[in-house]
Amino acid sequence: MSASPILRAAVIAACSAAVSCTGSHHMLDGAGEHARRVAELWWLMFGVLAVVYVLVCAAIVAAVVRGRRSPADLRMVAASPAQERRMIITVSATVAATAVILFAFLVATYSTSDALSSLARTPADVTIKITGQQWWWDVEYQDPVPSNTVTTANLMHIPVGRTVQLILVSADVIHSFWVPNLAGKKDLIPGHQNTMWLKAERTGRFEGLCGEFCGLQHANMRLTVVVQSEQDYQAWLQSQRLAAAEPSGDLERRGREVFVRGPCVMCHSIRGTDAAGFVAPDLTHVASRPRIGSTVPNTREHLLRWVRDSQEIKPGNRMPPLALSHEDLDAVVAYLETLK
Amino acid sequence: MLCALAAPGCKREERAFRVEPPQAAIAVGTRLTSLQPGTPLPARSQENEYEKNAFAMNEGKRLFQWYNCSGCHAMGGGGMGPALMDDKWIYGSSPDQIFSTVVEGRPNGMPSFGGKIPNFQVWQIAAYVRSLSGNVDQIAAPTRNDNMHVKTQEQSAEKVAPADSAPPPPQ
Questions:
Q1: Domain annotation covers residue B101
Q2: What per-residue confidence (pLDDT) applies to A20?
């Protein structure tokens, strides 16, 4: 890092005072090549500009303290040729320093953007299609073998150190994909395909958000990115490829009946059953996801409240309230909990 | 002898001569024909409040795609299913008739969506379906699409008065 620890601490303290900005949703805590390079550029600019700022402030304070010492100062002309020369040297030196600093920034910015775009020139190890929907993320792992395609929602696992290509499209309005720890934003535009590249440099769990106002629940359009070792990633992908397991208990079996005979099938799909709706999140492995409706933590209580009346948790979302009986509700929730 | 002894043990069917009010009310359903006994009742004009509500009709438009109505009826022009923007309404053009058609399904291909879609969404779809032929409050009808336009916006759909028509009787 180009900044001193004191400066860093000061910035983080000032920033934290306004909003919490450390941890899993933090631009300057880079875990990906993009975010790291941009953060480095940011620290370089911050450090240099902080020094300039302090020097300018010191010059102003010095000028005020010194005050006007002769009538010549009032007329803004030099009292002597020697003073004239000193003024010329001072002004020229500061102008030159400004030009040098700006040129250095230009070079640094250029080399950063070049490094960022170089990722696009390397072949992608993983290709993921992300569809922005009001108000959730549809995440599809593409594979040349169709049956190996994996669809999940509001959750993305990626291998560390690999180039990940994201294909960004939208089903309704403009959204923006933003995982600050990994990279900058990129818009998802209806009727247009955008592409971006990611390369995570350390494992961990990072949070993403929609970065473009997209309607009522824009603020709750969240995404969790789990960066794993290649081995863990492959194990996860393999588990996601499996169809939903056969429920073991009577209650769970009844839950599946309610699901596949009821209104759920109009929008949701669970691979391995008759439910094949494609406009709402694929629920084949819903129990393995960190959040319900991209909003609240995935607990039994939240799941129950969501199925009963999701409008209570996320007003305006596209899932209508379902008038299920208590018994059916219990059964559906019990079934969904088995979908690990 | 044994049969005669066993006979009194049989359960006797009950005959209720007095039926209580909820069951005794005169049956009302969705009428698909004007043919009636006695003097015909006037056509019931059941209104759909959503036909005056722009949000509800836009939701209907979204659901028309989501629930794949467009799979057969296309964008209203018809395809595998009948067109919805002309004056022909095989199973009636009134809001409650459209509601019944969606919920009950109709022979030769229209699936029954009863038990799969909440009531309010069926009414939203019914309102949108009538907007395709300009039979709703045009100020509230959906305007331009968010995506590429394949047809005129519903708001400027030409009003087509329904000429209710049943399929021709077999010759």
A1: yes
A2: 47
Summarize pLDDT for A29-82 with one digit per residue, the tens: 888 888 999 999 999 999 999 999 999 999 999 988 887 666 656 666 666 788
For chain B, how many structural domains are there in total? 1
- Domain residues for B105? 66-145+152-171
What is the C-alpha separation between A210 and A306, in angstroms, rounded? 21
Q: Say yes or no: ipTM exceeds 0.90.
A: no
A vs B: CB pairs below 8 A: 26
Paired with A141 in beta bridges are A128, A150
Architecture field, domain A250-338: Sandwich (2.60)
Tell whether domain A126-240 is in CATH 2.60.40.420: yes
The tokens describing A330, both together, are 């219990």
The residues with which A228 forms a beta bridge, in sequence order, are A159
Q: Which residue has the tokens 């699936």?
A: B111
Residues 6+ apart with CB under 8 A from A86: none
Please state the separation of Cα A37 from the chain's center in Å: 16
- Between chains, do A172 and B120 touch, taking CB under 8 Å as contact? no
In a domain, B32, yes or no: no
Per-residue model confidence as pLDDT tens digits over B92-129: 899 999 999 999 999 989 999 999 999 999 999 999 99
Q: What is the pLDDT of residue A8?
A: 67
CATH code for position B100: 1.10.760.10
Distance, CA of A48 to CA of A13 (rounded, Å): 19
Q: Would residue B157 count as lying in a domain?
A: yes
Per the CB < 8 Å rule, is B116 touching A263?
yes
DSSP string, A296-314: EE--HHHHHHHHHHGGGTS
In a domain, B36, yes or no: no
The verdict on a CB contact (< 8 Å) between B146 and A266 is: no
* Triad A323, A330, A140: Cα angle to 5°: 85
Cα-only R_g, chain A: 28
Residue of B nearest to A316 (CA): B59
Longest CA pairwise span in chain A (Å): 101
Regions of chain B short of the pLDDT cut 70: 45, 147-149, 164-171
Listed residue (A288, A164, A223) closest to A25, CA to CA: A223
Q: For residue B84, which phi and psi values (nearest 5 degrees)?
A: -115, 5
Nearest Cα residue to A334 out of A255, A264, A274: A255
CB contact B148 to A (< 8 Å): yes
| Per-domain boundaries in chain A | 5-120, 126-240, 250-338
**pTM, rounded to two decimals:** 0.83
